[in-house]
Write a structure and sequence with these properties.
Blueprint lengths: L22 H12 L3 H15 L1 H4 L3 H24 L6 H17 L3 H21 L10 H43 L5 H7 L7 E7 L7 H14 L5 E5 L2 E7 L5 H13 L4 E7 L5 H17 L5 E4 L4 H6 L4 H8 L8 H12 L4 H8 L3 H15 L6 H17 L5
Parallel strand pairs: 4-5
Antiparallel strand pairs: 1-3, 1-4, 2-3
Helix pairs in contact: 1-4, 2-4, 2-6, 4-5, 5-7, 6-7, 9-10, 13-17, 14-15, 14-17, 15-16
Length: about 400
């Protein structure tokens, strides 16, 4: 059957000039009649915009009273002009509103707020057409044109905004990374911070972070998630390399660093291991990084669970691993076990299990009798009984020293 008004491709061949009832045909006439009222529409649209969206009230007066009104007028004029001429806007004509949307990204206006100006303007145009002082015929003829225009403009503005936002995020990350590198190297960074428009804290907590092991490309996903979370904390300076990174967190209320790491764990969907040390001034940042790195390495060597550690958490163990005759003497306690790694593993698991035989045997996947036999061998070879409180403390210290002296060099 041959349907009138439908092309062979299935699309309607009804044009604005031939639309039923003459409503679409009236659109150009209606648009031309409303062109002189654009300044009034633009002013009212901006007034509604600033009243409804707090983000716009934060913009300087030069933007509100100048750029915002001028750009709103330009967009309305473009719409009514193209409707009056019966055509779609060209790429060149759309360049201005698209550029304006990108500029708002640099002003810090949220994308949702940027896009709301368009439906607000369209609604005001509709109201003028339908209920203005001199209503014109067939205001509904604007509906199709309004929707088509919004469909052309809003996606392009959103794309330009997101592209600009991505550039800004990259710039901010680079600025933060560069400033972190300068401070970690012990060099003055205030001039660079001024150049980047950043303000440095007087005191920082230096956090050395290690990502958990993850299969495949999960590490890259975690890094992206961490960077995205840190984008919302521009005062934190960060630099990442490999499977770890260093954060410079402004020293604030107690628990601020721990709360930040909790958010990073949530973003990464896995718990990270980190260590922190306070730098009382910028010059102390390199030493704080060294301390945090040593504490992190110690926590990992001790098999501690993921979390945040400070020197105070591992003070005894930290002291035990410092080079010197006392450390070497402690390490020699376990020298008789050098050629029996299963006994070293048994001692390690027994200590980690809180000296509870059942838990240690389960961790080692051996029978409790086997565990008892091995503990007896350790007592025989070292002269210290892991089941005796005094000897157990001595063996725990010896194991820490032993691990430090057997750690592979850099």
């Amino acid at each position: 059957m041959d349907d009138a008004g439908v092309t062979s491709s299935g699309t309607s061949d009804v044009t604005p000039d031939t639309a039923p009832g003459g409503e679409a045909a009236a659109a150009p006439e209606l648009a031309a009649a409303l062109l002189p009222r654009i300044p009034e529409m633009a002013a009212e649209t901006v007034a509604r915009l600033t009243a409804a969206i707090p983000a716009y009230r934060l913009l300087p007066d030069s933007v509100l009273g100048g750029d915002l009104v001028a750009n709103t007028e330009a967009v309305l004029k473009l719409f009514f002009t193209t409707v009056a001429e019966g055509r779609a806007p060209t790429e060149a004509e759309l360049a201005a509103p698209v550029a304006w949307g990108a500029e708002r990204a640099r002003d810090g206006v949220p994308l949702e707020a940027v896009l709301r100006v368009y439906p607000l303007g369209a609604r005001r145009a509709w109201e003028f057409a339908a209920t203005g002082p001199d209503p014109v015929a067939d205001p509904y003829a604007l509906v199709t044109s309004l929707l088509a225009f919004l469909g052309e403009v809003m996606p392009k503005v959103a794309e330009a905004y997101l592209r600009e936002q991505a550039d800004l995020d990259w710039e901010q990350r680079e600025h933060g990374r560069n400033l972190a590198g300068v401070l970690l190297a012990g060099r003055p960074a205030r001039r660079a911070a001024e150049r980047y428009g950043r303000t440095l804290a007087e005191r920082y907590e230096v956090v050395v972070l290690r990502l958990p092991e993850a299969p495949g490309g999960a590490t890259n996903r975690m890094l992206r998630a961490l960077r995205s979370e840190l984008d919302g904390n521009p005062e934190v300076l960060a630099t990442f390399k490999g499977e770890g990174g260093v954060l410079l967190v402004p020293l604030g209320p107690d628990g601020a660093t721990r709360r930040l790491l909790t958010r990073l764990d949530t973003a990464a969907e896995l718990r990270c291991t980190a260590a922190a040390a306070v730098a009382e001034d910028h010059g102390a940042i390199p030493q704080a990084q060294t301390e945090a790195s040593e504490v992190l390495a110690l926590a990992e060597d001790l098999g501690r669970p993921p979390g945040l550690y400070r020197l105070s958490d591992l003070a005894v163990e930290y002291q035990l691993v410092q080079p010197g005759p006392a450390r070497d003497a402690l390490a020699r306690v376990l020298a008789p076990l050098d050629d029996q790694p299963h006994l070293i593993a048994t001692l390690r698991e027994f200590i980690a299990a809180g000296y509870r035989r059942a838990e240690a045997a389960e961790a080692l996947t051996v029978h409790r009798n086997t565990l008892t036999y091995r503990l007896g061998r350790i007592r025989l070879l070292t002269g210290h009984d892991a089941t005796d409180p005094t000897s157990a403390r001595h063996l725990a210290a010896a194991l820490t020293a032993y691990d430090a002296t057997h750690r592979p060099g850099p």
